[in-house]
Amino acid sequence: MVVAANPLIQVTPGLMIWTIVCFLVALFVLRRFAFGPIQTLIDERRERIRRSLDEADEAREEARNLLEEHRKLIGQARNEAEEILSEARQVGKAMQQRVKDETEADRQRRREETKRQIEAETRRALEAIRAEVAELSLFAAEKVTRKTLDDKDQRRLIDEAIGELDFSVLERND
Fold first, then answer.
1. How many CA atoms lie within 13 A of 155 on its CB side?
2. How many Cβ atoms from other residues are within 10 Å of residue 137's Cβ?
3. What is the DSSP string of 111-173?
4. Is the CB of residue 138 less than 8 Å from the CB of residue 154?
5. What pTM was computed for the model?
6. 65-104 pLDDT, tens per residue?
């Protein structure tokens, strides 16, 4: 036997054998009762992590799909909003044009009505003037001739007097 200076590194064959036997027994016990359950726990944890990663990938893919769908819906909503605004603008222009046309038609109608009223009043005024001229003509003729004229002579004198008057100047003032 070799004697070493330090008793911890000194080789003792009996101690070595008992250390190897204890190590093998401890290895057997650990392998039988500890390594199996520990390995099972490690495998289970590895499987849980793998499932979590798969679920995370699926969730990420679903989130991408939802985001894409959301973007499409927003795009559709914008397009619909644009269409609604365009239709509203067209309806507004159509209403504006209709109001303008109705206003123009109303203005034309009033203008025509006013024109008819003016023409009617002009005709009445001309008739009144003609009647007054006829009466004055009869009066003047009676004074000149100093006799009363019969209906036939009155009518002839009225027609002559009215024929000589120029009423066209009054009728052209539209």
1. 3
2. 19
3. HHHHHHHHHHHHHHHHHHHHHHHHHHHHHHHHHHH-S---HHHHHHHHHHHHHHS--HHHHT-
4. yes
5. 0.40
6. 999 999 999 999 999 999 999 999 999 999 999 999 999 9
